[in-house]
Amino acid sequence: MTKIDDLVNWFEDKNKVMIALSGGVDSALVAYAAFQKLGTSAIAVTADYKTLSEEELQTSKQICSEIGIRQLFLDYSELENEKFTKNDSNRCYHCRMELGTHLLELAKKHNVEIIVDGTNLDDLGEYRPGIKALKQNGIRSPLVETHFSKSEIRNFAKLVGLSVYDKPSNSCLASRIPWGQRVTAEKLIRIEFGETIVKQLTKIKQVRVRDLNGSAKIEVDKEMISVFNNGMLKQITEKLKMIGFTAVEVDSDGYMLGKINVIAD
Predict the structure, then answer these.
(1) 236-255: per-residue pLDDT in tens?
(2) Residue 247 phi/psi, 5° resolution?
(3) 3-166 CATH
(4) Residue 58: pLDDT over 80
(5) Helix axis angle, 3-10 relative to 25-38, nearest 10°?
(6) How far apart, in whole angstroms, are the C-alpha atoms of residue 193 and residue 261?
């Protein structure tokens, strides 16, 4: 028996399950496993809370189409939540508490007793206040309970034919704004457009455009920085200024998860 069998069998005694599904590989594998065991008693739910990029939203639809699982959508705006928009170090906690509330309400409507997410073992080693919020709402993490690491998730996702197996990790658009700088619709729009522009011009898959008080700092993997020659940077700068950024630079240290928000011990 392989680990994917363990994950599928995790759903053995569950009657009806709701999977909080983003556009990423982790929740995709959970949704796949749930559907293998439960069929139509497994429901995927994607939250369109206005800080999720359109790209992620479309990918979530693609995932559900590949699996054959039913998908529901939660439609609300985190920008109406003052605790979230003030953007302190607990932003992710407030985000996930609100998501949990909406998921629980939806679960009640559909007579679902168990809600699961895509948290995996690697996530537990990072500063993730959102995980604490989900746990407080009773949301379970099958990938943690069956001991899946990120690399194992990617391997098994490829094995079962999920097209997102090699999709770069992503996070909500608000994560591009440093703590202490307010999250606004205007910033989120220019961040999303900015990242789309950089991806289209450079063909680089993993891009972060950080919004530092209106100035764009572009982060890509270190080995991809050479793509930004003078001509390319000039072209990108012109386009990013057109959508509202005041200045543009490429981070010479390269992309690093959560770089703009360093947690002091």
Answers:
(1) 999 999 999 999 999 999 98
(2) -155, 160
(3) 3.40.50.620
(4) yes
(5) 70
(6) 22
